[in-house]
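Explain my protein.
***
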Amino acid sequence: VSTQSTGTDLRDATSWLFSQVSLQDYILFCCQYPSGGLVDKPGKSRDYYHTCYCLSGLSIAQHSFQDDVVRGDPNNTVEPTHPVFNIVLAKADRMAKYFAAKGGVEEKQGDGD
């Protein structure tokens, strides 16, 4: 995963700015709604928004720069997701190839730009 604007490669980083294990603990132990779905904090109602973002956070916490770190049972593993597009990496690659074959995406200039 690289960023074109800065020219840096995110794979060169050595650690996240958070504890991978602690974030997984919080999501797995505190954010699961008893009858399904995920919440942002205990006592709140579940919804699609927070379920999606809890799963995204779980994915980012599990898939580090060098090794995968999965808390508890290996069945807790979720697929790696693209940190910008929030979709699994295979779909992000497919999307990039699709637009590259079409000549890329041009930025539309508005009035006064």
User: Anything to note?
Assistant: Residues 48-62 form the longest helix (15 residues). The chain has three helices and no strands. Confidence is low (pLDDT under 50) at residues 1-5. Helices lie at 20-30, 48-62, 89-101.
